């Protein structure tokens, strides 16, 4: 079956945690209010409705997260179509268990 859409790669939360030990491009596409309630340290907030304003480096992978994985999958698809190497984080912040152990900012 032919696909007209280029699918973005995806990773799990545990794979993301390992990558976060380095300095990776990482965006959180939740709303400003959701982001303000708490986010992963180092994540840049680019709400889904503003994803077209993202201006990162196209030669490096950019990791994308939201609350459950739905918006980040949409954002990653948009970014991939725009020429970025976007990687969707499965499960989103609902799967992030570091809220009480560090690696989480308010």
TrEMBL record:
Residues 20-98 form the Rhodanese domain. Gene3D superfamilies: Rhodanese-like domain. InterPro entries: GlpE_sulfurtransferase, Rhodanese-like_dom, Rhodanese-like_dom_sf. SMART domains: RHOD (SM00450). Signal peptide: none annotated. CDD domains: RHOD. PANTHER family: FAD-DEPENDENT OXIDOREDUCTASE (PTHR43031), SULFURTRANSFERASE YTWF-RELATED (PTHR43031:SF17). This is Rhodanese. It comes from Enterococcus florum.
């Amino acid at each position: 079956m032919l696909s007209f859409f280029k699918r973005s790669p995806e990773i799990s939360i545990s794979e993301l945690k390992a990558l976060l030990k380095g300095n990776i491009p990482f965006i959180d596409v939740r709303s400003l209010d959701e982001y303000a309630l708490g986010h992963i340290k180092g994540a840049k907030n680019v709400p889904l409705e503003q994803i077209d304003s993202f201006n990162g480096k196209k030669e490096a992978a950019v990791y994308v997260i939201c609350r459950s994985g739905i918006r980040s999958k949409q954002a990653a698809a948009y970014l991939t179509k725009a020429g970025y190497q976007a990687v969707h984080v499965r499960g989103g912040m609902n799967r992030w268990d570091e809220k009480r152990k560090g690696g989480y900012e308010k």
